[in-house]
Here is the input.
Amino acid sequence: MANFSKPTVPQFSVDVYQNEFLPEGGRDVNAIVTVTSTGGGTTGGFASGGGGTAAAGVVIMVDCSGSMDYPATKMRGAREATAAAVDTLRDGTHFAVVAGTHVAKEVYPGNGGLAVADARTRAEAKEALRRLSAGGGTAIGTWLRLADRLLSSAELTIRHGILLTDGRNEHESPEELRAALDACAGRFTCDARGVGTDWEVKEVTGIASALLGTADIVADPAGLAADFTAMMEHAMGKGVADVALRLWTPVGVEIVFVKQVAPSVEDLTGRRTEAGPRAGDYPTGSWGDESRDYHVSVRVPQAAVGREMLAARVSLIAPDPAGGDPRPLSQGLVRAVWTDDLAMSTSINPQVAHYTGQAELADVIQQGLDARKSGDRDGATAKLGRAVQLAAASGNADTAKLLSKVVDVVDAATGTVRLKAKVAEADEMTLETRSTKTVRVKR
Here is the structure.
């Protein structure tokens, strides 16, 4: 294990794709903002910082409720997966392992704090994992609150959680879980995984959404180790945390919405925090070497032909390591220009059109699956048919493949489908869990 003691800060760039031309009286301005971070993931953001101060830490939360014993391969797979994740930790990373039931218990290091990864602590942690056994209920909010306390016990710049569950959150109310998520939001990011098919998709995806992480299904426990290793490797590449998308708008401009649209759809509109006059911050979490796309929609005042204005300024903002004001990383401009040229004002920017379709694809999959569960076969057929049509048109082959396990596709171009008489529960849950994953527009 290498010890990266001098992580570099990623460099950010912002590119804006839009059709800035509006017809006379036009008000809605849409833009795709591509944010790219380079130069951070290669250093290992999860490294020991200067002067021995930890740059980052991770807490692995493992479901140890009674259902993890049925079949026994789930508990065995969870132990092996957590051990694989521990092996992936870089030297200097602060870490802990939590066993989750109707209460949360520290498995390692067990002293109310975090261990520092090296050969000795990794071996100790894996030894402690052998003592994990299944029994008890499920109260995920308690797991998250303990992870938050552990991650708060050290000076960390990046704080991350990995959560595995196999069942429904039956031993606390939805309000208690929501309160825990609200308390943890902005304090650490968290990837969530459901193993098997007895868990609730909306609970797991809701956890990942609230904590700006990823969600997925691991239907076969044998796949957990590979998935945990990949998650931890991705986490190891994070170089800067708590990055915000700051949107400044002139007087009279309204925010319609702000959404992440790649690599998955995530509505950030309601997560705005005020950041000065006419400015607001939208959280994006931690970054390594990666690129994400955001759809910004604003409504401007009407103006006459020939006028132009700055509709919005989009900036990337990160905390100042020295504790000063947040520092700008990069910015882009969204413009509005009024014209009487019909061809210019009616042209839809390809990036905007593509991601509008991807957002609709995510929506109609959810609506179609909900209709199917409620027994509305006509509604399910219509919505899932539209999903097949959108997936085919946008080249989203992965989603198209998942849809084909739920419906028989008669004609993808027109969205003509038939509901399958029998659908494996794992296939339906996989489609629902991955419904928000998008493909990027070809530029």
Remarks:
- Residues 1-7, 41-54 have pLDDT under 50 and may be disordered.
- The radius of gyration is 23 Å.
- The CA atoms of residues 66 and 135 lie 4 Å apart.
